[in-house]
Structure formats: structure tokens, C-alpha cells
Design brief:
The protein is α/β, with parallel strands linked by helices. The protein has a single domain, classed as NAD(P)-binding Rossmann-like Domain (Rossmann fold, 3-Layer(aba) Sandwich). The protein is built from eight helices and seven strands; from the N terminus they run βαβαβαβαβαβαααβ. It has a seven-stranded parallel β-sheet, sandwiched between helices. The radius of gyration is 18 Å and the shape is globular. The termini are far apart. It comes from Noviherbaspirillum humi. This is Meso-butanediol dehydrogenase / (S,S)-butanediol dehydrogenase / diacetyl reductase. Belongs to the short-chain dehydrogenases/reductases (SDR) family. It holds the Pfam family adh_short_C2.
Length: 254
């Protein structure tokens, strides 16, 4: 498929996990892709496997507005337009509110929430020109609570409602704003969990499909939401969770 031929896509957090899979999916469908993230080496590794003429590495800390502005300028200088923004960058420290530090709280809000705000604010003027779209990577943690992830829950809950508000404000501009809400997904962020068989068994028991997601399965849905196929989908926070939300997180009956 070439659904994104001649389109330009920014993916934040593109150096690994869902961001890497998303960048690869858009490139495979013909898009020019801007790979943004804090670690240039990771971005360069991904870029080397993409067509050189359609890949731009832009080391960016989305928690800093000046760096987001620089990323946008670099995108326009190289490709001349923007069609899709995927806000994927995120961090998720664990701990009870009395154990995790104030600095942890500030970092989560800076990356997971401020970063989405900064990127959307910079992208929307360009997306108005192309009648483009924004896909925010929220989480099922933005739809409900988790144990020992209150900071992450708060940030992703804000992203979930921010998505709805932007969809209402900018649908008239031809900009669609949606979010995906993955549950457990195999990424560097969760690799320690995947090394604990007992913990994984408990997670898998709660998911009706019996397993977590692979990054490519989330990327597939992101590509759909950005495509013409989803042209009347706006303001949706779509769970990608193997049925976890539908089951209310309850394990199967014995």
C-alpha cells in the first residue's frame, strides 16, 4: 500500500518500541518520516533501515518548547509540509505517590503531557494547510487506574481529554485528532516485566486475548487513524488492548 505517498509524518519517541514500529509502517507506505527523540543513536539506527531520501533524524526533547520548534523548522526546511503528527514520546516511573519523587512527577508531566501540548501547538498551523491529522499515544492507563502508576495515569488521563478537546476545536479546520490507548505492549519500557513469568501470567489472565500487544499492532492502528480510510473518525480514544477494557480487567471465571 502507498496510502502515505508524498505525505510527511513526524513521530516522536521514534527510537524504539511503538515509535520505531510506527515510523517503519509510515515509511513502508510511502511517507517521508521525521524521527524525533532524545537519543540520536537510537534514531540513527532506525533511520539507516529507511529510504535515506525520506527519513530525517531530529534529536528532540519534547519537554522543551525550543527544541520542538526547531524540530518543526527542520521538518519544513527538508520536506516543505506536514501531514501527520504522532505524539508517542513518554516515560512511566513506578511507585506510590509517597515513594516516587517530585522530580519524577515533573518529568512525567513534562514529557508525557507538556510534550504533547508543545508538538500540537507547533504542528496545528501546518496541519491546517494540509488538512492533516494528529494521533496521540495515550494508554488504557488514561482511561482508568493502575497500581503504582499514578503519575503516568494522571498524564495519560490528561492526554485522553486533550485529544477530545482538540478534535472539537480543530475539526472545522480539517484536522482530525485521535488517540490510541494501548495496554501492555512489548517495548523497552516493559522489557523487565516480560522477564517475570509470574507477573506476565497475571497480566495475560486479565486480557481476553491472553497476551500483550506487539509494537507493530499498535502502529497498524495509528496508520489507519492517519489514513483516508479513517476520514470521518475524530475525537476517538481507541483502546488497543485485546479486550481488556471490554472485560473491565476481570480475569476469566474459573
Amino acid at each position: 500500500m502507498d496510502r502515505f505517498r508524498d505525505k510527511v509524518v513526524i513521530v516522536t519517541g521514534a527510537g524504539s518500541g511503538i515509535g520505531e514500529a510506527t515510523a517503519r509502517r509510515f515509511a513502508a507506505e510511502g511517507a517521508s518520516v521525521v524521527l524525533a527523540g532524545r537519543t540520536a543513536d537510537k534514531l540513527e539506527r532506525v533511520a539507516r533501515s529507511l529510504p535515506a531520501e525520506r527519513a530525517l533524524v531530529c534529536a528532540t526533547d519534547v519537554a522543551r518548547l525550543d527544541q520542538v520548534e526547531r524540530m518543526m523548522q527542520a521538518t519544513l526546511q527538508r520536506f516543505g509540509r506536514l501531514d501527520v503528527l504522532v505524539n508517542n514520546a513518554g516515560v512511566a516511573p513506578e511507585g506510590y505517590i509517597t515513594d516516587a519523587s517530585v522530580d519524577d512527577w515533573k518529568e512525567v508531566m513534562a514529557v508525557d503531557l507538556d510534550g504533547v501540548f508543545y508538538c500540537c501547538r507547533c504542528a496545528i498551523p501546518e496541519l491546517k494547510k494540509t488538512r492533516g491529522s494528529i494521533i496521540n499515544v495515550s494508554s488504557v492507563s488514561g482511561l482508568g487506574g493502575d497500581w503504582r502508576l499514578s503519575f503516568y495515569n494522571a498524564a495519560k488521563g490528561a492526554v485522553t481529554n486533550f485529544t477530545r478537546a482538540l478534535a472539537m476545536d480543530h475539526g472545522i479546520d480539517g484536522i482530525r485528532v485521535n488517540a490510541v490507548c494501548p495496554s501492555l505492549t512489548r517495548t523497552p519500557l516493559t522489557e523487565d516485566m516480560y522477564r517475570e513469568p509470574e507477573l506476565m501470567a497475571k497480566f495475560n489472565e486479565r486480557i481476553p486475548m491472553g497476551r500483550g500487544a506487539e509494537p507493530e499492532e499498535v502502529a497498524d492502528v495509528i496508520a489507519f487513524l492517519a489514513s483516508h480510510d479513517a476520514r470521518f473518525v475524530n475525537g476517538v480514544n481507541l483502546p488497543i488492548d485485546g479486550g481488556l477494557t471490554a472485560s473491565n480487567g476481570q480475569p476469566p471465571m474459573s
